[in-house]
């Protein structure tokens, strides 16, 4: 199965305002391969931040009925 069919998922943990988005930007800019297509999923409760404008393909997810509810962006090879 190719990574497009089953993308890699990275979970970045940290308190609000701790610099998680900046870590994502560093990873996206310097830690991935040239052909990777990155999408970022943020919690629906996560407040907007200035760094959001620099993140690619941002979508939102929610925790409902003990499940993560959200739509993976089409064609992404890396979900963060």
Q: What does this protein look like?
A:
There is one protein chain. The protein has 80 residues and is an alpha/beta fold. The protein has one domain (8-79). It is 14% helix and 25% strand. The protein is built from one helix and five strands; from the N terminus they run E-H-E-E-E-E. The protein has a five-stranded mixed β-sheet with strand order 1-5-2-3-4, with no helix packed on it. The longest helix is centred in the N-terminal third of the chain and has 11 residues, at 20-30. The radius of gyration is 13 Å and the shape is globular.
How would you sum up this structure in a few lines?
The chain has 80 residues and is an alpha/beta fold.
Please describe the structure with a list of short key phrases separated by commas or semicolons.
globular; 5-stranded mixed beta sheet; 1 helix; 80 residues; alpha/beta; 14% helix; single chain
């Amino acid at each position: 199965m190719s990574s497009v069919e089953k993308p890699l998922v990275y979970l970045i943990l940290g308190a609000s305002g701790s610099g998680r988005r900046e870590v994502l930007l560093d990873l996206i800019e310097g830690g991935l391969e040239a052909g990777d297509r990155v999408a970022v999923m943020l919690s629906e409760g996560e407040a907007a931040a200035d760094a959001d404008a620099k993140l690619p393909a941002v979508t939102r997810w929610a925790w409902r009925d003990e499940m993560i509810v959200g739509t993976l962006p089409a064609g992404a090879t890396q979900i963060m």
